[in-house]
Specification:
Length: 111
């Protein structure tokens, strides 16, 4: 059973579910492995990322749990000076759902 969610900004969430983005970069490592919910945060990320997908801010869901992905590894990425959470097997929900708990910047328990 999935217990935690990771908060990620759009359009990065959409890139994960299209299997374009395979790593999520963070300043801190994680020991979490396995399937986690993916929460699309309210605040947008890189605006150029939207244009690369042929989209605009507002085209993708925000403020909702949109699916899940497996975290298979976490390694330090010297070129980016941060940690890469390796993502695999993304699964989009048919209908995004709002979390019952207040989302946090990285990890939170959504239900």
């Amino acid at each position: 059973m999935i217990e935690v969610a990771i908060s990620i900004r759009q359009p990065y969430v959409e890139q994960i579910f299209r299997s374009i983005k395979k790593e999520e970069y963070r300043s801190r490592p994680t020991k979490i492995r396995g399937r986690v919910y993916v929460y699309a945060s309210l605040r947008p990320g890189d605006l150029h990322g939207f244009s690369r997908l042929g989209a605009e801010p507002g085209d993708f869901p925000t403020g909702l749990i949109v699916g899940s992905a497996e975290i298979t590894d976490c390694r330090y990425s010297a070129p980016k000076h941060c940690y890469a959470y390796h993502l695999a097997n993304p699964k989009r929900l048919r209908k995004p759902i709002p979390p019952k708990s207040h989302p946090q910047p990285v990890w939170f328990r959504p239900f």
